Amino acid sequence: MVVFDKPHALADVPMHYCPGCTHGIIHRLVAEVLDELGIEGRTIGIAPVGCSVMAYDYFNCDMIEAAHGRAPAVATGVKRADPDKHIVFTYQGDGDLASIGMAETVHAAARNENITVIFVNNAIYGMTGGQMAPTSLPGQVTQTSPYGRDVKHCGFPIRVCEMLSELEGPEYLERVTVNSVKNIRAAKKAIKKAFQNQIEGKGFSLVEVVSSCPTNWGMTPQAALQWIEEKMLPYYPLGVYKDRTAEEAQV
Predict the structure, then answer these.
(1) Residue ranges making up the domain that contains 39
(2) 129-154 b/e with 16+ CB inside 10 Å = b?
(3) For the domain that residue 183 is a member of, what is the CATH number?
(4) How much of the chain exceeds pLDDT 90, in percent?
């Protein structure tokens, strides 16, 4: 009996991610969903700047490289060019989506663009050396906050799902994580729902994946997964923050 088979939508190439990085898990989940929904041939992914900058090498669907933070704008253009043919997703880190790309994210959500956003939140700038990100926790030590993030000077972390849930536009917002088998399964379910929403023309879906960065956190992979559980999840609670279909069904 086959226990696991590599998804066809995932390219058979080595990944550049650091040992213990959870990007690889998330890539696999996205690829499995593309396979199960039978949409690889009509899917276009948008890879912006950040650790995901080379995601175009890892998926067998068509991919486009976007400038830093601009993935939702590029995705909007691609989707509107042929809305009935293409399935479009962005794959973005927290520095990309919640900092330089915040305007693109907010306005795509406000317009309820029929795209899928995979948002990887590891609370740090990974690719550029471990600087403080918009999602870095209060007191978190980074390269640019060696004494810990001081909210009096740097403000508080941005909770993206909570913020976007206040908009009328978005169809679906959920925060998940991939630090355990149980949570990985729940994350896949959320990602699949986000793509299914787009197939059904429901609108903007964002799945935030709370993730680890062992290298820039200065931890072992095991310790990083534990840090997610003990430090990140209390600040970034898991759950569905908006699901218009479910809300309408309750009315």
Answers:
(1) 23-250
(2) ebebbbbbbeebbbeebeeebeeeee
(3) 3.40.50.970
(4) 91
The answer to whether position 132 is within a domain reads yes
**Is 238 buried (19+), middle (13-18) or exposed (0-12) by CB count in 10 A?**
middle
Between CA 228 and CA 155, with CA 20 as vertex, the angle to 5 degrees is 40
- pLDDT digit string (tens) for 158-212? 999 999 999 999 999 999 999 999 999 999 999 999 999 999 999 999 999 999 9
Is residue 108 within 8 Å of residue 73, measured between CB atoms?
Answer: yes
Q: How many domains does the chain have?
A: 1
